[in-house]
Structures are given as C-alpha cells and as structure tokens.
Amino acid sequence: MANVIIPIYYDYASSLCYVAKKVMEQLHGKLEIELLWKGVQIARRHQGWKNGEMIGDEAKGKIFRVARETGVTLQVPDHWLDSAYALEGAEFAKEYDKFTEYHDAIFKAVFEDGKDIGGLFTLLRIAESVGLSPDGLEATLKEGRFTNRVKETEAEAQRFQVVGYPTFMLGAFPLIGIQPAETMRLLIQRYIDKAREQVTH
Fold it and tell me: How confident is the model at residue 162, as a pLDDT?
C-alpha cells in the first residue's frame, strides 16, 4: 500500500520543530507515511514573535521540558532568528532535488551548532555544503523568486487554522506540537488506519 502523506507546518526558527524532526527520525521505518514539510515564517503570522528579540526564560523552560520528555538534546538560540531566507532557500533546494540535505543541514546549524541562519553569508555556506550553488541561491533570494510561494503556504496554514508549530495535519485534524515518539506513533497509526478504512469502504 502507498504511504500516507502527512503535511507538517514548520519554521527553521522553531526549537519545537527541530524536536519534531528528531522524534520523527526515531519513528523512521515504523510508520507507512511520507512527511510533507511546509515552511511558514512564524514571525509573519504571530505578533508576539519578533525577529531578533531575546527568547525569555519561560519560553526556554517550555522548550527544555519538551526536549526532556522526547529525549532530544538541542541548543536553544538566545534570540528569535529570522528564517525568511532559510525558508525560501528550502524552496530553492526542492528545485534541485536537495531538500532533505538542505533541511537537515539548516536544522543542525541552528540547534546543534548554534549558528544564526538569518545571516545571508551563513545561509549560503550551508547551502554550498549540501551541493547547492551559493551564487544561484543568493540571486534567487535577492529577486524574491520564492517569497510568494512561502507566503502561500502561510495563507494555507491560516485557512487550516494552524495556531502552533509544528502542526501535523492528520486529515482535517491539526495535531499541534510534538509528543514522545511512542505517543506520536500511536496517534499517527490511528490516523493511517482510519484513512485506509475510508479508502476500502
């Protein structure tokens, strides 16, 4: 049977999206799914999230609590990162069939190596490390070739009433946030079984 496609709305600036990526890696091969990563810049959708502002202790506390519960270790940036270029870079990477490599490298740069992906130079070096043309990416970003594509994804997230990140779309049901691997496995498996039941009836 074909894999069930599950869209997941994410932002490279979100620590919990990194945790979600790591948890879903723990489940690799245990679920017949394909994750469809859809980039959203949280700062454009939520007034409380300001690029460059310090991340407060309360927010950090929440992130570390989820990290403990899921067994994921990470570095949390000191301030909210501007992910606009990184998200447009993901669209560029898709055009060259390098999305997975780029996606992995960006998340690693932020949450393992403590890099600021809001800086163009840093972003171009990461892109180059996975085999993308830094000059091609820079020209694309300066032209804004993929700006609208990311904004369309953000509008789509709004239509589905996505209010938190990450959000897994289980059909019409938005599963917001991330749980430990076994909980995620059970929730998603239940959805897969239901989706397949509808197909066979």
Answer: 87
The letter for the amino acid at 35 is L
Task: Give SS3 for 37.
Answer: strand
Tokens matching residue 105 = 């490298």
Question: Mapping DSSP to helix (H, G, I), strand (E, B) and coil, where does residue 193 land?
Answer: helix
End-to-end Cα spacing for the chain: 15
Mind giving me the DSSP string for 54-101? BPPHHHHHHHHHHHHHHT---PPPSB----HHHHHHHHHHHHTT-HHH
Which of 99, 146, 141 shows the shortest CA–CA distance to 121? 141
pLDDT band of residue 61 (cuts 50, 70, 90) is very high
The SS3 of residue 18 is helix
Least confident of 38-52, 68-82, 99-113: 38-52
Dihedral, CA of residue 193, residue 195, residue 199 and residue 201, to nearest 10: 70
pLDDT in tens, 126-157: 999 999 999 999 999 999 999 999 999 999 99
pTM above 0.90, yes or no: yes
CB 171 within 8 A of CB 191: yes
Element housing 39 (H / E) = strand 33-39
How far apart are alpha carbons 155 and 57 in whole angstroms?
30
